[in-house]
Amino acid sequence: MAIIHKLPNITHRKQIAKSRLFTIEQVDLTFSNGEQREYERMLGSGRGAVMIVPMLDDDTLLLVREYCAGTHSYELGFPKGLIDCDEQAEDAANRELKEEVGYGAEQLKLLKQLRISPAFFNANMSIYLAKNLYAETLIGDEPEPLEIVTWSLKDYKNLLLQEDFTEARSIAALFLLKDLLAS
């Protein structure tokens, strides 16, 4: 039988740091059993983000290799970006696709909404499958041109072996796609 937990009471909240992208908040909690704890959490913009799994045809994936400041490396993964103010997730997915790989999609299918490190961060990401692509480029906010990499879905096991294909969200997106196509 599943245990039904009552959410802890937030007794105090305090902003302890803020940047252009994140706010770090200290949260004092009292749990239903009387235990008290102090947590720190990052608050995102609240709009969330999107990741797109673009397919040129039934077998060809489009990936991007881009600089990642967190690891100070170039990483291979699916295109992604933040949802702008007053923008729907699906519109953001199509915009990011045009900005990062030079294609728009006639068909976008939501694969899954993921939470990124929910113990410390309240950010959500919507992952879309993009099909029926057409050439269209928008100027984005990338500091340099991204390397576009095509990959055969049949060769997904070798993609998983690539030293620069390590982002958990991209790996999850790949398996969500594989599961969808297998059904």
Plain-language structure description:
A hairpin with a 4-residue loop joins strand 5 and strand 6. This protein is α+β, with helices and mostly antiparallel strands and 183 residues long. It has a four-stranded mixed beta sheet. A three-stranded antiparallel beta sheet has the order 1-2-3, with no helix packed on it. It is globular, with a radius of gyration of 19 Å. It has three helices and ten strands. It folds into two domains: 35 residues, no CATH class; 134 residues, Alpha-Beta Complex (Nucleoside Triphosphate Pyrophosphohydrolase), CATH 3.90.79.
List the defining traits of the structure above.
183 residues, alpha+beta, Nucleoside Triphosphate Pyrophosphohydrolase, 2 domains, 4-stranded mixed beta sheet, 3-stranded antiparallel beta sheet, 45% strand, globular
Order of helices and strands: EEEEEEEHEEEHH
Q: What is the CATH C level class of the largest domain, in words?
A: Alpha Beta
CATH topology annotation of the largest domain: Nucleoside Triphosphate Pyrophosphohydrolase
CATH level 4 superfamily of the largest domain = Nucleoside Triphosphate Pyrophosphohydrolase
Provide the CATH architecture of the largest domain: Alpha-Beta Complex
Distance between the termini: 31 Å
Uncertain spans: none
The share of residues in helices is 10-25%
